[in-house]
Please model this.
Amino acid sequence: MTKPEDLPYRIKGRQLIAEDASMRVQILTLEEGEQVPWHRHTFVTDTFICLDGPMVVNTRNPSATHILSHGETIAVDPTTAHQVTGQGGVYCRFVIVQSGGAHDYIPADDQG
Model:
């Protein structure tokens, strides 16, 4: 399981709510200019719940831009490359529920 301190990026805030071998729930805070870079997971579905935003979840295959406001959610299936930022690159805060298996972080190259 990938631990937050082993991820190749840093963000303003990361509050762990719950975790076991196949699930992790956190509150993440992105400051201006921060992002969760393009990546994918082998087994994990990421469910995002916007607390403060708007926030943007971009996906590849299918290619889409999802803009979430307070209280809105989206789930990103395993193996779908995705990236998260505040709309316009500004502050956002969200709950992320990662479930379905052991957490891994696989950087996504230009092909997805």
Summary: The two ends are 22 Å apart (CA to CA).
